[in-house]
């Protein structure tokens, strides 16, 4: 096994399109004999021989990633190679997985057959019936061998030796688990003489008409006929171009596909053709002449139990989930996906950037010396990868751009890949983010994580000129995409709205792709039998990047995180607004193609007691890019009153392939929940001594500290000033210098201590002054608590005044309490049902919500601040056993309630580390610091930053 060759695999046939040939196929998936060896030296010779004795081996399913089946361990690195940067060599300690399968075939495979591997990670040598077929490289790309002459009906022996690492591993440094194995299917394809080798469907669209040209490669190309029955196209001769007349064009919004049959005397192949044309016009991406805006995500292939061998139903379900959340575009980061994914993308409707299996990011740590992207020794391998992607996927209308790869530096091999692709398929744009400085050989100006102000500058064509005027002119003519933005790691991403606003307000900005769709957590079970998701470092890896692999809009189990719901709202393709009198509705249609014919409108008015009235609205038709103002039925305006909320929803009028009838796509609200006055009115009671403390109305205070001991008979501790939160992944991110979390640690926000300055009782109530500071520092915060008791309840006015030299930011300004853990039920009036921080929570609506304390928490894979509800004017906590309850009112506060402390939350590494401590931890926050996306990208924008400041707020407890 030569693992040192920088070249492509050997022995395979030339790359070609993936299609269902209409000829017999035999799946070789299933249980194979398997044995893992620690190195090539330790592996036996002769595994390819028919009579090799594998009786002592175990077995493994194919497809699979071995470490997910107990053979070796997963290992996670982001950028750094897990081996010395010494191309083309890899260490001797290189896991080798030997696979063997015995199988019978039907006679129709004996007249010519191909053996296809859809994906082997990472380098395989293949033998059939004792004969060497060749080698595979390019893990996420297919390899096909001609095998007809070697097959027999009974007891064929297929042997595959897979090395985890080879010279090609330098090309596969994507940010993901290192997971070797035959992770996609192995199939035997009958391929008799006269069968088609390749088909290229070129289906364009211009001015309402389709243009079709089908190229074929096969021994009897002259006998090939093409038909598109629905277009009355029959017997089209391959290689000729036909104006097929009026067609429905393909787009992500209306993915019209036509059955296209290619027949030969030996077979009939059915393909799905979509007519569409991708152009750049005035630095704007157009599809079928219409400007498009990508509402995109980056999609990796990962499953928490199976690694890279993602079951088909999981992948299909996640594509539907994307559509349900207004995603219209996918970047296949950072390799070609399972081929079925593109067929589903054709059918469901997604614009796809198909990315080549190439990343050499780890060379950044050696100043890009010997980067394969610029090394002639690797040129053939890079061109081979590009060709195998383009050839495999060329018939998918969903693919609108070919991407050369990700983070592979710069170099002549990349330019050569671009050139090859333009020659072979000029109908798609060439993308490569790494070329953004010159953009010399790409068709789009693509960036990742650029801050929103820079994106806006680019959108206005005001980006600084390049030194070379020709290159500058070229780049200025290119449309812009953010191939990665809004790093969805942990709580977040914050700041989506500002990006979307920028995208929608510049023709040059074609939108972006959130990083990323799915978290790459791996299921594990704690000693107590509780399942949790593991991440980098949990498998004893000597070099790893921790939880940086946990940065998805959905968990590894495909459960939407709050960020996905926010994304859905922020990118909604229709924006609606109701006027103040609830008499008219403004509808702005941001679709590229749809005139809203597929949607219905509904309205509903809610009040605290529930839904008051509801009904349908007349359907509206608005041209894409246009807006209209339509009257609302009189009933709607007549229902308007204080304490009521109107919601208008745009929903699917009929079920589609991805959504049920009535599925909501966009919505707006008007009205308000009652914002109750926090003032208690005239004081009716004065504090008195009793019950072992100072009694004020329903409350008992500690006379020495001025802190609460009980309220309404409930044991309560607090209030304590709260300026800190358990850092989020974004708080920990230092993308722009110092991480907010480090600033807070340096300021000592997590270890503030307090002393009571004074406790003063008067006829008006109780005034408690406390100073909070931190060890070794002379900055402090003076907090004055003014308590008064009236019929309406116990009122608290809080004044927060920073003292001394503060700088940086605070995580929040609030007051913390602990209460009996038996208060497990929560309801509130405000925004909900989910969490919201200053720059997240766009998905949350006005209304009246209830939950349990347990359900308020978001179980981020690495625990961190989460679950705050915002815009709240009334919060009620209830003990379902005793009926005891506590109500907090105030103008627009946010709260969090958890069965563990912030410190426990911050200390936990995994969800299983969080254990209820017997108290309820309640925080009532006046302000919060934004979330931003500094785990990779910019932090919270200036308006969302909470700088140390004085603050005053009022609450009322009943
Ligand atoms: C990008 C990279 C992605 C991922 C992301 C951070 O630089 O292209 O693969 O690593 O950063 O999660």
Automatic annotation (TrEMBL):
It comes from the Bacteria. GO terms for biological process: lactose catabolic process. Residues 695-958 form the Beta galactosidase small chain/ domain. One of its GO terms (molecular function) is carbohydrate binding. The keyword Hydrolase applies. Its EC number is 3.2.1.23. The keyword Hydrolase applies. InterPro entries: B-gal_small/dom_5, Bact_Beta-galactosidase, Beta-gal/glucu_dom_sf, Gal_mutarotase_sf_dom, Galactose-bd-like_sf, GH, GH-type_carb-bd, Glyco_hydro_2. Keywords: Glycosidase, Hydrolase. It catalyses: Hydrolysis of terminal non-reducing beta-D-galactose residues in beta-D-galactosides. GO terms for cellular component: beta-galactosidase complex. It is an enzyme of class 3 (hydrolase). Belongs to the glycosyl hydrolase 2 family. This is Beta-galactosidase. It comes from Rugosimonospora africana. The gene is lacZ_2.
């Amino acid at each position: 096994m030569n693992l040192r060759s920088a070249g492509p695999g050997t022995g395979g046939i030339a790359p070609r399109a993936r299609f269902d040939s209409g000829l017999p196929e035999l799946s070789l998936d299933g249980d194979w004999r398997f044995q893992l060896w620690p190195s090539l030296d330790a592996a036996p010779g002769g595994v390819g021989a028919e009579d090799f004795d594998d009786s002592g081996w175990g077995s493994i399913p194919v497809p699979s990633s071995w470490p997910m089946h107990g053979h070796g361990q997963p290992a996670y690195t982001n950028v750094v190679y897990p081996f010395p940067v010494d191309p083309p060599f890899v260490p001797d300690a290189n896991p080798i997985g030997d696979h063997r399968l015995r199988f019978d075939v039907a006679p129709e495979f004996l007249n010519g057959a191909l053996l296809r591997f859809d994906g082997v990670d990472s380098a395989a040598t293949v033998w059939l019936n004792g004969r060497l077929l060749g080698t595979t490289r390019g893990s996420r790309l297919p390899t096909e061998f001609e095998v007809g002459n070697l097959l027999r009906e009974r007891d064929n022996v297929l042997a595959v030796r897979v090395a985890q690492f080879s010279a090609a591993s330098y090309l596969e440094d994507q940010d993901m688990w290192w997971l070797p194995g035959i992770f996609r299917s192995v199939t035997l394809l009958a391929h008799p003489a006269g069968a088609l080798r390749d088909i290229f469907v070129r289906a364009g669209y211009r001015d309402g008409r389709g243009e079709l040209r089908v190229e074929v490669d096969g021994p009897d190309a002259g006998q090939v006929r093409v038909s598109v029955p629905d277009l009355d196209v029959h017997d089209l001769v391959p290689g000729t171009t036909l104006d097929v007349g009026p067609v429905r064009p393909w787009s992500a919004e209306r993915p019209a596909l036509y059955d296209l049959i290619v027949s030969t005397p030996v077979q009939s192949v059915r393909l799905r053709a979509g007519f569409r044309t991708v152009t750049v016009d005035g630095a704007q991406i157009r599809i079928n002449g219409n400007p498009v805006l990508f509402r995109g995500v980056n999609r990796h292939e990962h499953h928490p139990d199976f690694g890279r061998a993602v079951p088909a139903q999981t992948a299909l379900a996640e594509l539907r989930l994307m559509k349900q959340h207004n995603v219209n575009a996918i970047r296949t980061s950072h390799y070609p996906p399972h081929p079925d994914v593109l067929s589903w993308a054709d059918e469901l409707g997604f614009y796809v950037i198909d990315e080549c299996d190439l990343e050499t990011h780890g060379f950044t740590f050696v100043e890009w010396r010997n980067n394969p992207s610029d090394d002639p020794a690797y040129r053939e391998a890079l061109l081979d990868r590009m060709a195998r992607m383009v050839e495999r996927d060329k018939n998918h209308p969903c693919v609108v751009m070919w991407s050369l790869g990700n983070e592979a530096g710069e170099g002549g091999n990349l330019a050569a890949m671009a050139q090859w692709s333009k020659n072979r398929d000029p109908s798609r744009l060439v993308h490569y983010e790494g070329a953004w400085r010159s953009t010399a050989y790409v068709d789009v100006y693509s960036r990742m994580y650029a801050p929103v102000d820079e994106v806006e500058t680019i959108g206005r064509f005001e980006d600084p000129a390049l030194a070379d005027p020709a290159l500058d002119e070229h780049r200025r003519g290119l449309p812009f995409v953010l191939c990665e933005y809004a790093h969805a790691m942990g709580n977040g991403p914050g700041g989506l709205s500002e990006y979307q606003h920028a995208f929608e307000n510049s023709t040059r900005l074609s939108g972006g792709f959130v990083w990323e769709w799915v978290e790459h957590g791996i299921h594990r079970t704690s000693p107590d039998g509780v399942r949790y998701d593991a991440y980098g470092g949990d498998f004893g890896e000597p070099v790893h990047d921790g939880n940086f692999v946990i940065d998805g809009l959905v968990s590894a189990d495909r459960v939407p995180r709050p960020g996905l719901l926010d994304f859905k709202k922020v990118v909604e393709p229709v924006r609606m607004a109701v006027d103040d009198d609830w008499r008219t509705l403004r509808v702005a249609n941001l679709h590229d193609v749809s005139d809203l014919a597929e949607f219905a409108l509904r309205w509903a008015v809610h009040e605290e007691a529930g839904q008051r009235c509801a009904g349908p609205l007349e359907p509206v038709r608005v041209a894409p890019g246009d807006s209209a103002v339509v009257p609302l039925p009189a009933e709607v305006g007549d229902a308007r009153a204080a304490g009521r909320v109107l919601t208008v929803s745009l929903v699917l009028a009929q079920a589609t392939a991805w959504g049920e009838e009535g599925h909501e796509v966009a919505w707006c609200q008007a009205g308000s929940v009652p914002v109750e006055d926090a003032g208690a009115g005239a004081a009716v009671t004065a504090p008195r001594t009793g019950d072992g403390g100072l009694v004020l109305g329903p409350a008992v205070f500690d006379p020495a500290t001025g802190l609460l001991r009980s309220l309404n008979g409930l044991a309560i501790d607090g209030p304590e000033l709260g300026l800190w939160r358990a850092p989020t992944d974004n708080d920990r991110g230092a993308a722009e210098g110092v991480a907010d979390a480090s600033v807070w640690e340096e300021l000592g926000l997590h270890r503030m201590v307090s002393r009571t300055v004074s406790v003063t009782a008067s006829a008006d109530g109780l005034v408690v002054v406390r100073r909070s500071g931190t060890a070794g520092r002379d900055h402090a915060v003076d907090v004055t608590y003014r308590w008064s008791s009236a019929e309406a309840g116990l009122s608290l006015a809080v004044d927060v005044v920073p003292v001394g030299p503060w700088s940086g930011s605070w995580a929040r300004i609030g007051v913390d309490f602990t209460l009996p853990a038996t208060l497990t039920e929560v309801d509130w009036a405000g925004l909900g049902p989910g969490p919201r921080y200053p720059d997240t929570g766009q998905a949350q609506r006005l209304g009246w919500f209830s939950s349990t304390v347990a359900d308020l928490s978001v179980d981020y894979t690495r625990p961190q601040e989460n679950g705050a509800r915002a815009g709240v004017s009334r919060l009620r906590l209830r003990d379902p056993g005793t009926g005891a309850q506590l109500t907090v009112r105030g103008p627009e506060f946010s709260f969090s309630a958890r069965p563990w402390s912030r410190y426990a939350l911050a200390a936990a590494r995994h969800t299983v580390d969080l254990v209820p401590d017997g108290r309820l931890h309640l925080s009532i926050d006046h302000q919060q610091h934004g979330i931003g996306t500094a785990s990779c990208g910019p932090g919270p924008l200036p308006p969302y930053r909470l700088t140390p400041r004085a603050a005053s707020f009022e609450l009322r407890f009943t």
